[in-house]
From TrEMBL, chains A, B, C, D:
The active site is at C145. SUPFAM superfamilies: Glyceraldehyde-3-phosphate dehydrogenase-like, C-terminal domain, NAD(P)-binding Rossmann-fold domains. SMART domains: Semialdhyde_dh. It catalyses: N-acetyl-L-glutamate 5-semialdehyde + phosphate + NADP(+) = N-acetyl-L-glutamyl 5-phosphate + NADPH + H(+). Its main location: cytoplasm. This is N-acetyl-gamma-glutamyl-phosphate reductase. It holds the Pfam family Semialdhyde_dhC_1. Pathway: Amino-acid biosynthesis; L-arginine biosynthesis; N(2)-acetyl-L-ornithine from L-glutamate: step 3/4.
Amino acid sequence: MTRVAVLGAAGYTGGELLRMLLAHPGVEVVQATSDQFAGKRLDYPHPNLRGMSSLRFVPHDALEPCDLLVSCMPQGGLINRWARVRELAGRVIDLSADFRLAPAAHERWYKKHPRPAGVPGFVYALPEWTASELPEARYVAVPGCMAHASLLGILPLVRAGLVKPELVVDAKTGSSGGGATPDRASHHPERASALRCYKPVGHRHTGEIENVVERLTGTRPSVHFSATAIPSVRGILATVHGFTTRPLDEAEPLRAIAMAYREKPFVRLIRPNTSASPFPEPGPLQGTNYCDLSVDVDPERNRIVVNVALDNLMKGAAGTAVHAMNLMLGRSETEGLGFRGLHPI
Amino acid sequence: MTRVAVLGAAGYTGGELLRMLLAHPGVEVVQATSDQFAGKRLDYPHPNLRGMSSLRFVPHDALEPCDLLVSCMPQGGLINRWARVRELAGRVIDLSADFRLAPAAHERWYKKHPRPAGVPGFVYALPEWTASELPEARYVAVPGCMAHASLLGILPLVRAGLVKPELVVDAKTGSSGGGATPDRASHHPERASALRCYKPVGHRHTGEIENVVERLTGTRPSVHFSATAIPSVRGILATVHGFTTRPLDEAEPLRAIAMAYREKPFVRLIRPNTSASPFPEPGPLQGTNYCDLSVDVDPERNRIVVNVALDNLMKGAAGTAVHAMNLMLGRSETEGLGFRGLHPI
Amino acid sequence: MTRVAVLGAAGYTGGELLRMLLAHPGVEVVQATSDQFAGKRLDYPHPNLRGMSSLRFVPHDALEPCDLLVSCMPQGGLINRWARVRELAGRVIDLSADFRLAPAAHERWYKKHPRPAGVPGFVYALPEWTASELPEARYVAVPGCMAHASLLGILPLVRAGLVKPELVVDAKTGSSGGGATPDRASHHPERASALRCYKPVGHRHTGEIENVVERLTGTRPSVHFSATAIPSVRGILATVHGFTTRPLDEAEPLRAIAMAYREKPFVRLIRPNTSASPFPEPGPLQGTNYCDLSVDVDPERNRIVVNVALDNLMKGAAGTAVHAMNLMLGRSETEGLGFRGLHPI
Amino acid sequence: MTRVAVLGAAGYTGGELLRMLLAHPGVEVVQATSDQFAGKRLDYPHPNLRGMSSLRFVPHDALEPCDLLVSCMPQGGLINRWARVRELAGRVIDLSADFRLAPAAHERWYKKHPRPAGVPGFVYALPEWTASELPEARYVAVPGCMAHASLLGILPLVRAGLVKPELVVDAKTGSSGGGATPDRASHHPERASALRCYKPVGHRHTGEIENVVERLTGTRPSVHFSATAIPSVRGILATVHGFTTRPLDEAEPLRAIAMAYREKPFVRLIRPNTSASPFPEPGPLQGTNYCDLSVDVDPERNRIVVNVALDNLMKGAAGTAVHAMNLMLGRSETEGLGFRGLHPI
């Protein structure tokens, strides 16, 4: 049994991690930290875990040695504790943006916390694309949720040379990505009917997407990214608008995507005429590690549109952390990730 | 492996059954019927099952022999096929109201389809209360979803003699209970903001609740039941308003409920000060077989209020079918029912 | 032109008041106070008022003399400023609970702020029932939103002697009643799917309902009130469960209610077979001062159920303030209250 | 008083028209047609109109002569009745796509119903841009809702030469645009959590946008349009993604848009730092004829994003019909369109 601790376990990604890890056959949750809920049982802030464990939260500073630490701390939370964390845990998975980008790119997009000297590189956990790097990895960074969705749609097409490297990504997202801390924008009366493009330009995931595409395909794209809040709690739909490099119909990009995700258990390409619900949508993916995608082509305009749906808290965060953990530990990829999702929802 | 067929498997309770049965270690789904989707794969109407099975729907009339049949047909669907079904399946679980009530009561509340001569009695599957009858049962009827929620709250208090047998039940429910067939009342623009008491008096579950309470406790209550549609898809909250038989505080009813559901894995009593979300609510129960309940007493007024939350498609339908099936087959109660629910949702 | 000031105008009832008063032909809004938004234009926190006025918020303490002051301050806000407010305004309408109850009842239900010596009585503004007291009133208290809905359903039946004075009221409410200040319970991810009976017993509106019914009908009822949060922003549905004093069908209570609200422009009784949406529901009442109600009888059980729907921010708060103001000023009852509501919504 | 008839008045745009016209000081509603609800009062399918009128629906074929006819019939409904309608009404406003496009373009995008010989040209009612054509117009076509939103964002920038004529438009829309007829995709359990790009390529409004931009600016753009269903009933947010023709910051496009809509009462440009809700969103626009827009520029990438919000049933349909009618009748532009919208909602 791998002894796992969760740092910052009272938030939304922390809750999803606990749900999966407490039922995972290969790990034991030894500690879960929360300053706010220290002393309370895990199900105190996570009502779905009612009766699942008698473990109680400990303060962040009460962290003890473990085999693997998963950090759900917000931006800067892990980097600020890095000296101590590296003493306590041989392997670390971080869900924040602290270690996703190379130092220069980090400074460009996040400005603060350029990775200090002595802090090692983290492997970027995009399991369908970087799985081979994970078994040996000591330190792993989970992608940003909207970057993750965008990358799963963009990478196969850029790699196959089917799409011009000038892409517009219009991402729609629920409220849970903003975390568990109340504020005006997420106050229910203000958020319940929200349909607002809250970050039309300058979104930080832009740099993450461009850098990763370049690293994995050799082509540096220009990604024009906008994020829109929609009236839901969970889920992302990333719509990638592009143009084909030459006249083609849907067959070729369908093939490229199908090839890229052949034998990848969590990415599903929706083919024409196979579903009464033929569009990727995050609803039935809630709570799962699945990503659904579709591709549409308008041959008259050399236009291509890829839609990618996932659950921001799962495939976009905690699910990928467990997926990466499984690969790091040499276990089956799908362990602890068996939930199939609900319909209707 | 028990060979199970699902009759009427393209609807919402059918989808939930397939989700659970396809992953259940003790059963094999041999047939799933749907006239509308005959020839299509199971995931055609159930997008969450994408990639889970290559089985295809067959028409209802193509049903072949199996060990156990679960019927998700609407009112009258099973009774009309009874002669044939009894030939094909040794054991049957029905999710409709066809066999829940004794013939006289059925005729009183449903008017049509009084159980014809030659049709046997069905065991009423309220596992926390009738589990002992299930291992031997050949024919099993799953309770109505709102009756189920109401009964789980009422039974412990009536049995313990703590509550007067005159009860008001105000049940709130999402839209999925109405099934998958579109109509005006469930058209999204009409239903999205619905908060309407659509059945203030005369609801059919009234008779079911009164009869079952009488049979299981010996006391016949008067239940004054109203049903209100609320803006959600899944979930029921049944608020039971009653009066105590004598002055008491919360301790006694808490104890009575705790005793009733001791070692019952799917019913959870929320005790004071144990949760940041201390009220039973169906949100985090979606997709699970859990039922959460709470009790509140106003000693000044001898008033008692019990709130009961569950997922109408699961604990209120398909989950109880699987729960009953496990007991009928002598398997572990919780098999196939391990999903813990999501938070936030 | 009556010069009106709004105290605490940046919250949700303040926003509704401004929307109506800025377009009202008989009044001029001279000041609107907010400490948080002092110096900002009225449309800064109220996006629907964009371009409607160039007025800016002033701090609460910058209040100047006016003809009529409407206070949208929370509990205790007006009572704490009373000495100063009485100097500044000849007439006052308060939307909080500060002045709704007689001192003894206030102390019983609110504990703090028993009305201090020297503070005058306020007229309780239930326009369909207390309109005759309003023209002369200097000081007016607007009912609590859930009390208001309950009273409109209960009063005609108690007055007509048709219902036993032991009533269960199960009220369902959206999130806006909790105000504009963010907290965990109203954080969108926690509130979006909420269906929780957050106040099963002991709700403060109980006392308000019982006292007002007694005062207006001479009969003191026992009201057993519970409040349930449902997944919407605006709107209340109060379901009143009662028992008739003698066997009767729907005709008699329909007549009693129709009589009570004859020529009352804002209360509408839904009669059988007159609507494709025959149940009172707050959706199409959003933004209006209307209250819709229905009555159902189960003669077998001497049971009667009255459903009452309204918009908590309008008929339940700001709309009644304007209605009362019109009566105080001798203007047409419906002035400024012409909006008919939306369907679908 | 202008005598107005509404053809197809039982649907959602018909309901909005009736709400406005019944309260309009310059018109009298003489007939409202519906085959389904013939003989019922207007408030039968429109609960918000309860008590507003005693008029009853008549069948479509019972239409009598009037001064002005507004048709809310679906695609083909008016064209099929054209011979008769032209006899009955001197002026006609059509809300369908029957007469929006020139015959060749209509045939390209709609395939059926190319305008038959003898059918006159209709004036395209985009009041902020074609107001001068309306006073003389006999026949008027209201734009498609998503085309309308897109055009209000695109036109000022193309006319000012600030944006390259290759544009991606990602439009998000609620369910009411699909009309009042139930179907599976709009069945509440299927639609409540929908976030699906249901028309990634080939949307018919593409041709409408391109043609109108060319006619009004002389520049023919390529518009790459996708439509996404989001979990709401009313409202459109059109996000226009473009590239500037030269390096510039926000000041210039802000000026161009401000100039275009100077003294246009229904289009509001949200300037930086003027609102706690600084993004255009359709929520507070529900029921109004307003359109809110914003512009953002990323000077590093010569990128420009315009967001445009409106209510599809109002500014996108019935509101523009009334706006156009006011101009046709020489009345004040804003008559009957005074509702300011709600917040929160």
